Amino acid sequence: MSTSNKTALVTGASRGIGRAIAHRLGADGFNVVVGYAGNAAKAAETVDAITGAGGQAIAVQADVADAAAVEALFAKTLERFGRLDVVVNSAGVMDMAPIKADSLDKFDAMVATNLRGAFLVLAQAAQHVAEGGRIVAVSTSVIAKSFPNYGPYIATKAGVEGLVKVLANELRGRNITVNAVAPGPTGTELFLTGKSEEQIAQLATLPPLERLATPDDIAAVVAFLAGHDGGWVHAQVLRANGGFA
After folding, report:
1. How far apart are the C-alpha atoms of 186 and 109, rounded to whole Å?
2. Whole-number Å distance between alpha carbons of 185 and 142
3. Among 64, 161, 173, 220, fewest CB within 10 Å belongs to which?
4. Which residues pair with 89 in a beta bridge?
5. How many CA atoms does the CB half-sphere of 164 hold within 13 Å?
6. pLDDT per residue over 126-185, tens digit each?
7. Closest Cα partner for 88 from 226, 234, 227?
8. Please, where are the H alpha helices in the chain?
9. How high is the pLDDT of residue 193?
10. Distance CA 48, CA 55 (A)
11. Among all residues, which ones are annotated catalytic?
12. pLDDT band at 2 (very low <50, low <70, confident <90, very high)
């Protein structure tokens, strides 16, 4: 797929994996819409990095759990660039919580952003992505590990993978691919917060490649799916994890 005059919308693009994805797609020639929840300064940094390298980008605030905000995000994308070819839903939150009654608030918060948000973004993407386009959701490889205290987070991401496979079938005949990318341990603020240096070092040894992923590692996989060479990959979950799971 030629990226000339094509547009990519990336949610959660003000930091971490989403930011790396936005940078990479901008470098690959897409116009980029930087979706962000609340940190306008970080979103502006992402836009500046893309435009500073010669690309086109704007930032649009939207809480992915808010249906009206997500609808407005897509409307503003189309108003600015006139078309939409790639949607990457990278917005997400992670909080450790055991499967206990007093974890319900954390569970609800993760469901709202990770699962409800994915549903809303995928629904708008299905409506607005042009024929021949790409839809990518970010999941997680920790699904295969079933670590204690990851239950609510894993539940939301397992739901995302289910939505991806169903949407792939619902878009039959439109030549739009729908996939998920499931990172393993990745050196982002989301992943590193609350962990000691010893814990981080231990986690880095879990993949056979014996390191944490960088956000750019994950962005490269998303760029493959968004580009010409990813056109025959559909309804799949690519586990970009260095052999972690």
Report:
1. 22
2. 8
3. 173
4. 11, 137
5. 27
6. 999 999 999 999 999 999 999 999 999 999 999 999 999 999 999 999 999 999 999 999
7. 226
8. 16-27, 40-52, 67-81, 104-110, 117-128, 151-170, 189-192, 197-204, 215-226
9. 80
10. 9
11. 153
12. low
d(CA 2, CA 25): 12
Q: What percent of the chain has pLDDT over 70?
A: 98
Rounded Cα–Cα distance for residues 171 and 129 (Å): 11
Q: Quick one: how many helices (H) and strands (E) in the chain?
A: 9, 7
Q: 31 has which bridge partners?
A: 7
User: Which stretches of 10-135 are DSSP H helices?
Assistant: 16-27, 40-52, 67-81, 104-110, 117-128
* CA pair distance 218, 12, nearest whole angstrom: 14
Q: What angle do CA 80, 81, 87 make, to 5 degrees?
A: 110
Q: Residue with structure tokens 């979103």?
A: 43
For the chain, the structural domain boundaries read 7-185+216-238
- Evaluate whether 24 touches 17 at the Cβ level (below 8 Å): no
Q: What distance in Å separates the CA atoms of residue 170 and residue 152, rounded to the nearest whole number?
A: 27
Topology of the domain comprising 7-185+216-238: Rossmann fold (3.40.50)
The structure tokens 């009206």 sit at: 68
Q: Do residues 95 and 109 lie in contact, with contact meaning Cβ atoms separated by under 8 Å?
A: yes
